[in-house]
Write a structure and sequence with these properties.
Blueprint: E1 2-9, E2 12-16, E3 21-23, E4 28-29, E5 33-37, E6 43-49, E7 57-60, E8 63-65, H1 67-84, E9 90-96, H2 107-121, H3 128-138, H4 142-145, E10 150-154, E11 163-166, E12 173-178, H5 188-198, H6 202-222, H7 225-244, H8 255-269, E13 274-277, E14 284-288, H9 293-300, E15 305-309, E16 316-322
Parallel strand pairs: 7-9
Antiparallel strand pairs: 1-6, 1-16, 2-5, 3-4, 5-10, 6-9, 7-8, 10-11, 12-14, 12-15, 13-14
Helix pairs in contact: 2-3, 6-7
The site of ligand 2P0 has 15 residues, from helix 5.
EC number: 4.1.1.33
GO molecular function, one term: diphosphomevalonate decarboxylase activity
Family: Belongs to the diphosphomevalonate decarboxylase family.
Length: about 325
Amino acid sequence: MTIDATARAHPNMALVKYWGKRDEQIMLPSTGSLSMTLDEFPTTTTVQLREDHGPDVLELNGAVAQGEPLRRVTRFLDLVRERAGSEARAVVRSRNEVPTGAGLASSASGFAALATAASAVYELPQDTRSLSRLARRGSGSACRSIIDRMAVWHAGEDDATSFAEQIEAPELAMVVVVVDAGGKKVSSREAMRLTAATSPFAAAWRASTARTLEEMLAACREGDVERIGELAETNALRMHAVIQSTVPSVRYLRGASVGVFDAIEQLRADGLQAWGTADAGPNVVAITRPADAAAVADALAGHGEVRVVRPGPGARLVDERVA
Ligand code: 2P0
């Protein structure tokens, strides 16, 4: 019997964004999405079964967590227990190596690592597809962090068909520009609901993203970095446009973020190819070729702390203790 298991997973950065759910209960997205798993900022999570009958315990970066983070982990473990036919509670210890305020969400790496460690401990299927489907139930984008390097998340029709899998793509690099280390006021989940409920552009966003995903898959197959960059930048700005069009308006990009998009456009005019993207926060990420990453990082260093990231590994077990 497995006593405890430790898994590690990394965040991912979407080139075609997930923004909206078709079914919040089982976390079906309204459109597919596509991302690069990063080689930095891992989350390492240990799941240990409790031998007494105490409740689930969550420790985040060494401190005991309560409230919503604990409820979210418990709900996730309830699903795992239901599938495993187990009543055993667990102690979950999770550590994020995201530098404070790097603006890279830890929910994707967090639930990818948790799904992987929990599947080992509760003896659920551990193939990539099963792990991706399970991670999705914790946080949508976590299904992509299960996957090595580049992932497409198929929107799917039901729980069985909504999962991420690896795709071939040309070698990319990204430059993360941290313009603001503060937390966000409106969670992605809340802002997605607000978008569906109040934006007149929500349907256009869904239709255009579905088309963009098809074009992006073709650009990845063809190894066309320029097309990948253009599509990613347009898709990110469309996502921010639909988010800003909510009532009340949610604005994740700040003046400084727009300044980085301007600087990236200027780099292109000067002959250095890079394209901007941004998630549900103010920080901007430049997508570029590996050979240009250092020059792009130098050029953007005046706008905030910069860090070059590359394609990284999917979630995996790093330790397992068996009695
Ligand atoms: C993405 N984001 O594709 C998009 C782009 C943020 C902006 O996925 O409600 O934490 O847990 O499924 O996955 C962030 O949302 O939301 C996200 P839930 P999630 O990466």
